[in-house]
């Protein structure tokens, strides 16, 4: 039996835990009432929840009952994260003295520090400092010109072996099995950037099993599949030399460790355009290449599949957007299942679940087969569903598009321009009406007020468009 879905929701008052869909009576049940916090994050397997309560207090919750099991006092920490199985808490503090050990790995069961080291700076590509595989069998860290490996079961032994990679700037350990590690070496002195894959063994002559080189790369995102056989590489550049994009350019690359793909194959795929795009989404059956449905989620900041693959959640959150904050949950066929708006929403996440908690997926596959979109039929052979949809479309006008955002100064400028244009239009209509009355063309003359209203409306619309 699949585990029940749960959702973490965080706003200005703190975080709460909802029971996930399907909802009784159309509304989610509350599993944990709102509790004050600054941030919250699940472990990768969903067994632990890290809650930052202040600049120096971190609490760890057991996700089976959401009881606090440990609280850590870490003065002035700037970053914290859980290991994939929630065994360790890792914290980073600004060092007050040179070479002060400011990265600490705490064992949650005992509350004791098990490893400490010095790290000069913390960036997105270098945090967390110590990386674990999904099963926590292997641990490694990025150091100057090398990757250092630890015995995850006993970190007190320190570094057990190294892989030398001159110029390495980012590292990503494969999930499970922890058989490989991917590294990124940026451009230098005319030499192109490269992504390399190494095995995690102790071979002193360790050579990369895969390599990909490319120019114009400011940063990369490295994402392993679950079988540790394939790596997705998103290469990003701050400048697009073709001048086609103000936001630079991105390229997607795929590397394999053995020339084949044996990882998990997704059943469902959502193609979506968020960010500067209007939020259109298309849901597809990946294996049959059939579209299941389309919909739209405007102004989405985050999006995520539920762990069972049955639901897709989008959220509009602050501080990225200060208005229209809310959550939308869709079925895997694109139909809207649930929607809730907030005055202010900071975070909305599914609780993760370990893949081994899910058994046979035949029920989901059978459900998908009933939702596939029919092939296009010739004209005159519309299905009853299509005819009904067409009738409802003809009787019900389409919903009005949301108005574009206009800053206050633009609104004022539009209003002033509209008033000036309206006055000008009234004067012209009065002159025209006077002329028509003098010529006796009463048969073709419309009421003066009607002409003024129509012209005024048109002028206001033009003025507002110009202001935008």
TrEMBL record:
Q: Which residues form the signal peptide?
A: none
Low complexity: compositionally biased ranges: 397-420
| Keywords for this protein | Initiation factor, Protein biosynthesis, Repeat, Translation regulation, WD repeat
Q: Which GO terms describe its molecular function?
A: mRNA binding; ribosome binding; translation initiation factor activity; tRNA binding
UniProt xrefs under Pfam families:
eIF2A (PF08662)
- Composition bias type Polar residues, residue spans: 384-396
Family annotation (InterPro entries)? TIF2A (IPR011387), TIF_beta_prop-like (IPR013979), WD40/YVTN_repeat-like_dom_sf (IPR015943), WD40_repeat_dom_sf (IPR036322)
Asked if the record carries the keyword Protein biosynthesis, the reply is: yes
Report which superkingdom the organism of origin falls in. Answer: Eukaryota
Region feature (Disordered): 376-452
Q: Name one GO cellular component term.
A: cytosolic small ribosomal subunit
Q: Which biological processes are named by the entry's GO terms?
A: regulation of translation
Q: Does the keyword Protein biosynthesis apply?
A: yes
Q: Where is the Translation initiation factor beta propellor-like domain?
A: 212-265, 268-348
Comp. bias regions, Basic and acidic residues: 425-441
Q: Which family does it belong to?
A: Belongs to the WD repeat EIF2A family.
This chain belongs to the protein called: Eukaryotic translation initiation factor 2A
């Amino acid at each position: 039996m699949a585990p029940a879905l749960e959702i973490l929701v965080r706003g200005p008052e703190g975080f709460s835990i909802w029971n996930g869909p399907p909802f009784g009576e159309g509304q989610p049940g509350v599993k944990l009432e709102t509790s004050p916090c600054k941030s919250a994050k699940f472990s990768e397997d969903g067994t632990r929840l890290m809650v930052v309560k202040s600049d120096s207090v971190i609490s760890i919750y057991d996700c089976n009952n959401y009881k606090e099991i440990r609280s850590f006092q870490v003065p002035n920490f700037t970053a914290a994260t859980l290991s994939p199985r929630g065994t360790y808490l890792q914290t980073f503090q600004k060092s007050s003295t040179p070479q002060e050990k400011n990265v600490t790995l705490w064992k949650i069961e005992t509350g004791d520090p098990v490893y400490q080291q010095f790290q000069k700076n913390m960036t997105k590509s270098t945090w967390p400092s110590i990386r674990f595989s999904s099963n926590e069998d292997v641990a490694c860290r990025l150091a100057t010109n090398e990757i250092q490996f630890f015995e995850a079961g006993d970190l007190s032994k320190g570094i057990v072996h190294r892989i030398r990679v001159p110029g390495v700037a980012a590292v990503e350990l494969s999930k499970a099995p922890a058989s490989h590690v991917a590294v990124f070496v940026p451009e230098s002195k005319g030499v192109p950037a490269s992504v390399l894959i190494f095995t995690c063994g102790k071979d002193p002559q360790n050579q990369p099993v895969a390599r990909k080189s490319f120019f114009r790369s400011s940063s990369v995102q490295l994402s392993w599949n679950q079988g540790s056989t394939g790596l997705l590489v998103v290469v990003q550049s701050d400048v697009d030399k073709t001048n086609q994009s103000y936001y630079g350019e991105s390229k997607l690359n795929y590397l394999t460790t053995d020339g084949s793909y044996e990882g998990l194959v997704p059943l469902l795929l959502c193609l979506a355009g968020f960010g500067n795009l209007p939020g259109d989404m298309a849901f597809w059956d990946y294996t049959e290449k059939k579209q299941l449905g389309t919909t739209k989620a405007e102004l989405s900041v985050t999006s995520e599949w539920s762990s069972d693959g049955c639901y897709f959640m989008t959220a509009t959150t602050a501080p990225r957007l200060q208005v229209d904050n809310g959550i939308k949950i869709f079925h895997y066929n694109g139909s809207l299942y649930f929607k809730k708006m907030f005055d202010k929403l900071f975070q909305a996440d599914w609780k993760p679940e370990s893949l081994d908690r899910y058994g046979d997926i035949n029920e989901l596959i059978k459900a998908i087969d009933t939702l596939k979109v029919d092939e296009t039929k010739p004209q005159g052979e519309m299905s009853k569903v299509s005819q009904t949809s067409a009738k409802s479309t003809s009787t019900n006008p389409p919903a009005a598009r949301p108005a574009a955002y206009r800053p206050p100064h633009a609104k004022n400028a539009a209003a002033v321009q509209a008033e000036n244009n309206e006055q000008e239009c009234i004067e012209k209509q009065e002159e025209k009406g006077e002329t028509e009355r003098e010529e006796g063309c009463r048969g073709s003359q419309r009421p003066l007020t009607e002409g003024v209203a129509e012209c005024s409306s048109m002028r206001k619309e033009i003025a507002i468009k110009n202001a935008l």
